[in-house]
TrEMBL record, chains A, B, C, D, E, F:
SUPFAM superfamilies attached to this UniProt entry: Ferritin-like
Essential cofactor(s): Mn(2+); Ca(2+)
Annotated keywords: Calcium, Manganese, Metal-binding
Source species of the chain: Salinibacillus xinjiangensis
Pfam families in alphabetical order: Mn_catalase
Protein name: Manganese catalase family protein
Annotated InterPro entries: Ferritin-like, Ferritin-like_SF, Mn_catalase, Mn_catalase_C, Mn_catalase_dom
Note describing how the cofactor binds: Binds 2 manganese ions per subunit.
Source species taxonomy: Bacteria, Bacillati, Bacillota, Bacilli, Bacillales
Residues annotated to bind Ca(2+): 57, 61, 220, 222, 224
Biased composition (Low complexity): 268-281
Amino acid sequence: MFYHVKELQYNAKPERPDPVYAKKLQEILGGQFGEMTVMMQYLFQGFNCRGEKKYRDMILDIGTEEIAHVEMIATMIAHLLDGAPAKEQEEAAKDPVVEAVLGGMNPQHMIVSGLGATPTDSAGYPWNSRYMISSGNLLADFRANLNAESQGRLQVVRLYESTSDPGVRDMLSFLIARDKMHQNQWMAAIEELEQQQSAVVPSTFPKNLEKQEVAYSFMNFSKGTESEKGSWAHGPAMDGQGEFEYIENPEAMGQIPDLTQPPNYVHGTPTPGQMPPGTEGAEYEQGNMDQGPLN
Amino acid sequence: MFYHVKELQYNAKPERPDPVYAKKLQEILGGQFGEMTVMMQYLFQGFNCRGEKKYRDMILDIGTEEIAHVEMIATMIAHLLDGAPAKEQEEAAKDPVVEAVLGGMNPQHMIVSGLGATPTDSAGYPWNSRYMISSGNLLADFRANLNAESQGRLQVVRLYESTSDPGVRDMLSFLIARDKMHQNQWMAAIEELEQQQSAVVPSTFPKNLEKQEVAYSFMNFSKGTESEKGSWAHGPAMDGQGEFEYIENPEAMGQIPDLTQPPNYVHGTPTPGQMPPGTEGAEYEQGNMDQGPLN
Amino acid sequence: MFYHVKELQYNAKPERPDPVYAKKLQEILGGQFGEMTVMMQYLFQGFNCRGEKKYRDMILDIGTEEIAHVEMIATMIAHLLDGAPAKEQEEAAKDPVVEAVLGGMNPQHMIVSGLGATPTDSAGYPWNSRYMISSGNLLADFRANLNAESQGRLQVVRLYESTSDPGVRDMLSFLIARDKMHQNQWMAAIEELEQQQSAVVPSTFPKNLEKQEVAYSFMNFSKGTESEKGSWAHGPAMDGQGEFEYIENPEAMGQIPDLTQPPNYVHGTPTPGQMPPGTEGAEYEQGNMDQGPLN
Amino acid sequence: MFYHVKELQYNAKPERPDPVYAKKLQEILGGQFGEMTVMMQYLFQGFNCRGEKKYRDMILDIGTEEIAHVEMIATMIAHLLDGAPAKEQEEAAKDPVVEAVLGGMNPQHMIVSGLGATPTDSAGYPWNSRYMISSGNLLADFRANLNAESQGRLQVVRLYESTSDPGVRDMLSFLIARDKMHQNQWMAAIEELEQQQSAVVPSTFPKNLEKQEVAYSFMNFSKGTESEKGSWAHGPAMDGQGEFEYIENPEAMGQIPDLTQPPNYVHGTPTPGQMPPGTEGAEYEQGNMDQGPLN
Amino acid sequence: MFYHVKELQYNAKPERPDPVYAKKLQEILGGQFGEMTVMMQYLFQGFNCRGEKKYRDMILDIGTEEIAHVEMIATMIAHLLDGAPAKEQEEAAKDPVVEAVLGGMNPQHMIVSGLGATPTDSAGYPWNSRYMISSGNLLADFRANLNAESQGRLQVVRLYESTSDPGVRDMLSFLIARDKMHQNQWMAAIEELEQQQSAVVPSTFPKNLEKQEVAYSFMNFSKGTESEKGSWAHGPAMDGQGEFEYIENPEAMGQIPDLTQPPNYVHGTPTPGQMPPGTEGAEYEQGNMDQGPLN
Amino acid sequence: MFYHVKELQYNAKPERPDPVYAKKLQEILGGQFGEMTVMMQYLFQGFNCRGEKKYRDMILDIGTEEIAHVEMIATMIAHLLDGAPAKEQEEAAKDPVVEAVLGGMNPQHMIVSGLGATPTDSAGYPWNSRYMISSGNLLADFRANLNAESQGRLQVVRLYESTSDPGVRDMLSFLIARDKMHQNQWMAAIEELEQQQSAVVPSTFPKNLEKQEVAYSFMNFSKGTESEKGSWAHGPAMDGQGEFEYIENPEAMGQIPDLTQPPNYVHGTPTPGQMPPGTEGAEYEQGNMDQGPLN
């Protein structure tokens, strides 16, 4: 169960309105790697957690913090939208600043949300839950979390570069620091789990049931071998259980596919030479009954 | 530019049809972490790559391999759908096996694709490109790739557990091995980049511009302190540049939000006591003209 | 900012697992009118609230409660999935109960979430934020909220009817009661606002600027006049400012549309008789330059 | 069955083209609460109606009218797009008016629809049918309808404020009046149904099966009690069957969740201390066979 | 403007309920090529039509008919859902017929729509407007229409094969005939337009501006030349303005891509060797100011 | 299986950056009829092909070419984004060119992809697989392909008209030529199949099972008969098996729908007069048990 306090986790007030920037800031609220994603991802991972208690507690701590981040950014966006102009285009075109604002705003910030934040990204695309994952395997999920915090911090930094408003930058500097902590946190948790299990997810599938011949081979599927110069091409593999090898010219190991004709009731492409039966219903129906469900 | 050979990368033929399993197998074809995702993710990362040539080449090698994985799984699904029954429900209900098959199939495998694979997941949900990421920062993206290969291998293993068909298991054992290689590959590439830069993405944002006070603090937002027992709560942080601290009772550091009233032309909630102007159009319009665009 | 306690708001433990029912229960977690919708809807309405403080506080109280409802239902679903069978189809078909379970499960509960709740509805469709609204006008939004609680309670009741598990029914009886409270709550808040303003949203648009002739007319667009028998056809209108009238044979009041030909650079349908210019590039290009951007 | 007449229900011709406004106007055509939504919502409610004939007739009358509204707005948008410039950006940048137009247009109005209306909202997002509801319970659905007409009229009014074109304003003044009628109409129908049943949806669920203790309690989940000042906190409830009470410090009534470990074949997080079996395939496989489907 | 009559265009009553078939039938109501698609596609093409009056009239005639098809199929689905069982799973599993029904139903037909049709396809996926097209070029759009009627009739036929209910088959035999007419109709209209213009869309782009060398070449991008045996490989092209040629070994005609390094403020992958500036904020910030917006 | 070569199929380098045009160009990369659509459509049609070998080979040849088109356009977009400004809005507003660029860019090209192409259309909407079709009937699918190449070429031509950059126009002139070839190719393949079967898809459904009376009738559902002037209204039908007829006043041929009341456990609208049972739980529950599953 949850409780709310009215104070924000950190300040979220710009020095001046900027409706165009409000549109951009939506990316880290409702985007693929925005705060709504990590909030929902951590809450579901916590609710579904079947592992040790300390993991469940830790995941829900950070999930609860992320609700506060959604609150902060939504508040900031509402402030940035204060006083957005609604003037008509013709007049606006005479005033370059007004026009610039109108052209760069998300029209839904006026028409739909009435100067409030929307649960969408900077392109106006709504958040959806396929952005998040809760797989029941903590090592897999902590990698998802590390990825989300990496992509997310990258986007916050790019947004920092796009404004000089001291209030906005102050809030972003807080988020940039928290995302650094969160990257560190997931790296620590990943290391802990990798030491208990092994580095490959899932660690519990028996080795003898996987195709060993190709489990450590880098396959060069393009002309040229620049890809040979990386640490993934030679030397011991990261899981400590094999040796990388570089296959310069990988060959196909499988058959040429040969699908059978579908049954008549699928009405696939008729074989040429076979008379199209459309004109002779009676015979067709008769023939069909022997082969399929038409009756 | 790309070329095709008719042979599959590996065998993709089941011993017998199984239309219900075909539906499940769709998850690793068109699901959030299926082969379509890694194929498109790697191709876009490669096409957009502005880094060293070896990375671009490596990414496109694996992207090209993933097209072949899409081909293999699609072929397998088409084989599994061979001879799917189309009989009507009433009759089917009399034959438990037929009925079980009909109840468990994705109806679109019959009606829409005519016994072919569909670009959807095991719930019938279509693939969309918000599953993938290409951020322009390779360390961020390699973490996305490691995550995708971890979630993907977990799902392949679960599908391996759900069938005993030797042909299907043979193909899955190949994919399980390739996904092990790909996890190893991205881990190697990540290590390489982390050593050149630092472990936090992006590594190029100046430290003095982020809120240092909260950059290494674990905040305990729930009652109870089980979360203190992990490696993320105390000791040196993973980036080697700070020390974790555990904040047992984190306090709000921000203001109570106080949004201003919107301009009249937004038609937000009218302030109580202010007479609703709807009945006196003329005066309203007059007053409004002073404040907003209605004219 | 938010805090978490480990206890659930109410019990969420079934007497026995039921993976098929778990799939159905998803509707009130991640469906159009599920708990994720009201949670996000209320949180955004609260964060964006520019009205009186008591409304903001009230909205966030209930929004915070809804996070706890998400937690309860997710927990219940995880319990219901305990021990879901993963057996292959052929064997399952021999055991009607196992088969029934496998046929009726959402396969992603096994493959993707590893026996955890997913942020989707009972058809497996992911939650998206276009389900919710925060418009900046509280009367409009409270009607959205009353609707959501009405549709939601209806769905919970239908789910109550579909199970006899005492644990599940216990939790649902709690939600059914809370949804009754929430319907009552929004009705009370709506009445309060309607008395301050008027019943039509928005109440602040001047009456003389709307087309009065059609502001209270019921138009009968079909053969037959059964629709005349309702309270919407005659008598005083609900806003107390007009009288309903019934137009038995509504006539078109507008023009026949007549769109102009598009400019050449749009490459719309060429006018017949006008020679297709494709074969004479030079002349075409010449002519086009006079009219459009091709140059 | 339906018939068409060529005249529009009302005029839909602007005084002059305005491609930027065309983009905004899309909101009330293909947006969450646009005419496509009410059109499809009413048609489906009518087609599915199992209640009294007068409701079915009434719903289909208004559904049929909404098709005409889609027609009017689509026509208006096509007119507004007349003569949209296609000039390249560099030249455009020299002419502020052209540039303003190009920057603010939806590029798909040129590239995809060739100066025609698109079935999308003002952010370019396509209409989808999860915007609408037809639940089989008329009281629930009429609340959905009242909400849609309230949100819709609010958006039309905001669009009225954003233009001074007399032709556009004329059409919008018609829609604003019709939406007033439709709000009145649904309020009348709701009142009728509430008097026959009761105010809480569904009215047919037995009271003794819901958790009475919490059916009229407002729970204050935040610090501070501003929310106590509303009509929802004390006094008789709106359904006339209970009394509101204000719970200042709501306590958790449920257990601390404790999920069981998943079966092995799910490959969840392995318990620490339990040796990772990946390296000893034979034993693992043996052990696994006892517990799960791997065989 | 539109009018409604209460009679259906054709009968839509099954002999007996069949909730499982109701789920399948949804495909031709709300699927990619269902009646909602052609209805909206034709209505928008008509509303946007800038060509000859006869086309606009014809398109709207068929668009209006399609609304009636939506009505028929929705009605049929509601009938098929009559008396769907809601019993719990455990009991159902004892009765194979009930269980088969429950396992094969779309749960939303019970929980969400209360035994009514839903605006979704047979996988439960909601209709969205990206299924349809209205491009402003009639030849292009008539090809879209011919495709939609071809895919649609194929699906109706497959559904005909999956039932033996005489009432359902009666309605489908009507739709199969109408789809035959509609295919014929679009073929006739296409032929008319192709004769006025030419066969390639758009016919108005000047030939000398397209890369003539590759305008009639079939490129064989795979090993093996089976593709040479078709009518597309040799002989006169269909537009009568060129000759097909078969390129057995197509060569790349373009450069190797070489993207420049992004500016610093993008925070892409840092060049190795370049010291990561994160630890020396002051200098970094200084340097950055010279190159980008960070300031 | 697939191989990659580093050279592009054709040049893809603009003369100068143009981030606004980059946004528009996305339409033919990730739009409804962009290269991702034809690439995935052809690959799936090829993988699923159960017809003659020459068709499979041909489809996969063109599918493989389309991967190269995705590569070319993605590369072009990355070049166009080079040097996109990130300056803040206020300063930008002082410089019309910079401002025009910022207002017209897709913000995700900076924030999300770091100056790389995104898998979205020109409105920023992500690609999804419901854009494509693979039906198992080649005639149906080749019509889908002809449509896709027609819509696609129309869009490329419109984009050609919107730029004067010689590098961009050079690449587009290549694509315009290839799309001409592809239209010709699918027309040739369609003609081949139509001659083997017949012109109506599917050709294998027996004529006597379809409602012959309406199989060649044009129905005029609107006032006025302009639609009679087309080739679809009179004369021999295109399939050579019937004669078009024009029905000026089509009549309804079906019944008035009359749906039965739903069972109680659906909780639909209660019949008026029937006392609302909510207040008397015991009796209700008793009564309900006779009719439905509540127990």
